[in-house]
Amino acid sequence: MRASYHTHSRYCDGKGNLEDYVQRALELKWKVLGFSAHAPLPFETEWTLKKEDLPLYLKEAFMLKEKYKNEIQLYVGLETDYIKDTDINIPEGLDYYLFSVHYVRTEKNDRLIPVDGPFDMVEKGIQECYDGDGKAYTVDYYSQYREMIRNKRPVLSGHLDLLKKNNKNNFIFNEQESWYKDEVEKTLKTVKEFGCILEINTGGLSRKYTDTAYPSPWIIEIMKEMEIPIVLNSDAHNPLWLDTAYGETEELLKKIGYKTQRALYDGIWQDVPIG
Ligand SMILES: [Zn+2]
Ligand SMILES: [Zn+2]
pLDDT means per 10 residues in the chain (275 residues)? Predict the structure, then answer.
């Protein structure tokens, strides 16, 4: 069973209307689809919902849910940021929330580095706030990710190693180094402890930022050993990318030993076969 609970329409930083995603999902013969616009932040951004658009997004999403209820199950959610020491107000009572870290808050200069922002912004942030030390930045990222899990206890949390998007040529860190593995393992332990579902995200692949899904295959192997439940999501920013790289990623998941994934279906998160 295929699905994606991670999609971005023109309401935030994606292309296409919510209904275009529904149409695409129907073409793919999916039985379920989730909307997860970027929730508004306390400051203006180019990529989140505008505060005034939030009610419009919710109204349209719930209207579509009703309109298509005999053809496909639609779930209305938000991708919600966790930013250290920042209150982010999100409406309660939605079908689900996908929690992600897109900003690292730095101690020095108290700045927010956009994790998946343009490379030069990340580079500048590491220079100015970490004296060029990519390891210190990476350690802060994972520490803030763990803080998100502990403080928000999300059902579903997003793109664990998003920071590899800007790590071409190991500019920030080397995944093979033991300190990096330690940070990842520590974070997976927290995920396990709080019973969180981790997404396998093909968004980096569809936009050609990465060669593999988030998280990297060796991380998925540890997740399997720890029996952390997963959801395969596309993080599609275009309806045409709704199932990008699903075939190869499902193969990888099966090779690692995952036979099932979680799906929000008939109103509850349940185990369904992969693919
Ligand atoms: Zn995200
Ligand atoms: Zn996203």
Answer: 97 98 98 98 95 97 98 98 96 97 97 96 97 98 98 97 95 97 98 98 88 96 98 97 96 98 98 94
Contact 81/49 with Cβ under 8 angstroms? no
Centre of ligand 1 from the C-alpha of residue 254, in Å: 25
CA of 6 to the centre of ligand 1 (A): 8
Torsion on CA atoms 107, 48, 205, 201, rounded to nearest 10? 80
3-state secondary structure of 226: coil
Element (H, E) at 220: helix 217-225
Q: Domains (ranges, CATH) in the chain?
A: 18-273 (3.20.20.140)
**Structure tokens of 25?**
């999902």
Strands (E), 102-196: 103-105, 112-114, 156-157
User: Ligand 2 centre from 203 Cα, in Å?
Assistant: 8
Question: Which residues are placed with Cβ below 5 angstroms of ligand 2, an ion?
Answer: 79, 235
Q: From ligand 1's centre to the CA of 80, what distance in Å?
A: 8
Query: For a pLDDT cut of 90, what percent of the chain falls above it?
Result: 97
Q: φ and ψ at 106, to 5 degrees?
A: -95, 150
d(CA 272, CA 260): 5
